[in-house]
Predict the 3D structure of the following.
Amino acid sequence: MRKVIIPAILLALLAATACAFSSEEQQQLWDVPTGEVRYEINKSYLRGNIKVEEVYYYSRPYLRQPTRIFGYFAYPKYHRGKLPAILLSHGGGGTASLPRSISWARHGYAVLSIDLPGKGENRPGSRSTGPDMIVANLLRTQPDPSHNYLVYAVAAARNGITFLTQRQEVNPQRIGMVGLSWGGVLTLLTNGQDSRLRAAVNVFGAGYIPEGCTWEDWFNAMPALDKEIWMAYLDPKNFLATQHAPILFITGTNDHCYYLPTFQKSYEEVTAKKNYYLIPNLRHRFLASAQDPAFAWLDQRLKRGGSFPTIEVLTPFQKGNNRIVVPVKVSAASPVTSVRLYYTLGGPQQWTTKKWLEIRPHQEKNISYFSIPEKLLRPEVMYFVSAKDSRGGVTSSLVSSLFAVQFRDGTRSFANSAAIKKIYRHEKPIRVLNGFDSDRAYFLHSKQDQAYLVLQPQ
């Protein structure tokens, strides 16, 4: 494995040009041979009708020593033909889960659940070698990016995919990956580089991490150049446009690790087939309510085909003197079982403490109409819509804002922002419900008027 050294001239260039870098340097940093991986079966046993093997395979060397990655490889013993396969990656503080491996194998998959490299914070039980999974290593940029933990984690994941392709139980054309938290970050990085994946599920992980995350203090303490190097070489944003497999994004509105705006910003930059599922009031936990859509997504891509519902949020309008109506059109191949709008008071800040409430629609033909009292929009609410179908598919719209506006002459209306992708900011284009062209306008919050004042340049 070649080591990436960033010479002083390149460091100066990064500082001067906001991280200019070449695709060759990026490829060299993450380079992982995918021909064959050496592995050993340490132990094998049955759990009911599931065969479990405790395996070790070799990955990117660390400190000139071979790195051994531990994994549970579980699959139905009495399967017919080759199985679709899933690589499971835990988050920070986690390890491979035997119960989860068995549970997912019972859904008809060959499952490889791994201990990411090393030990580290809350990971004394990790059986893998390599660098420790600690924040300092996850954010490390010196002496060059090749020392960052994520480089070793991606190598472990891609070598895990190679392990799966070598197993006779596995159909190498039907491999998916699921990652939680830092494992979600790892899924974005891996799916952005490895064309062998056919499906991916990212739970919580996001790009643009320094723009909104629980490690804000760490990033703020970084020298400016180190942060530039992180963004140029290590942040998952660099691989959003190159996602290979169709990918499902799952998060909670109140996730405290990767804030919702950066999650939404990352999702919008993915050009591959994708879907978005937002769980109201959920913090950083992977619940059964999130597993069902993940299985539905994987089943559709690795087994039976199909699609998730699609949501079109139409232009809101005023009804009478006291209500704003949000019309929503849902299309689905399977019967739609529910459509709900969720809202929270206030604007794009304090993401982890908000309380999201549910509104049920008035249905007319194939349009769902959600009625929001105008008094709640003083000054604003944020909202999104979710739709479920009978086969486990779930789709959410991105979160945007509805807010009151007031013009210089004292007249008032309401406005709808685009999907929110930055903390404390409404995103344009902003549609004002009275038809006002807001392209060149500014919106300044007025606590006294309980509205946003519309300011136009002279």
Q: What stands out?
A: The chain has ten helices and 23 strands. The first helix runs from residue 8 to 17. The longest strand covers residues 50-62.
